[in-house]
Design brief:
Layout: H1 2-91
Length: about 90
């Protein structure tokens, strides 16, 4: 009978220890799940920021091309105007 009581106590201690380990492991799993959710959220935010940045860069590049083209046209028109004014100046 004593032997059974000893085995029962030992088994209960083992069970208690296993329950403690299980509780700690569950706590770690919960923490890791929270970190995973946070990491996924940060990843999604970063992807959105990168996509938005790329679109903005593309739009700025298009605007720069338009501005450059307008500047070249304006420069050409001014050059033509100055040549015309020079011709009129010398024609008088």
């Amino acid at each position: 009978m004593q032997l059974l009581k000893g085995q029962l106590e030992e088994t209960q201690e083992d069970l208690n220890l296993a329950n403690q380990v299980l509780a700690e492991t569950r706590g770690k799993v919960d923490t890791l799940q929270q970190q995973l959710v946070q990491t996924k959220l940060e990843r999604d935010q970063q992807e959105h920021l990168v996509e938005t940045h790329v679109k903005t860069e593309e739009n700025l590049s298009k605007e720069a091309e338009i501005l450059l083209q307008t500047t070249e046209e304006t420069t050409s028109n001014l050059d033509k105007l100055y040549r015309k004014l020079d011709r009129k100046k010398y024609a008088l």
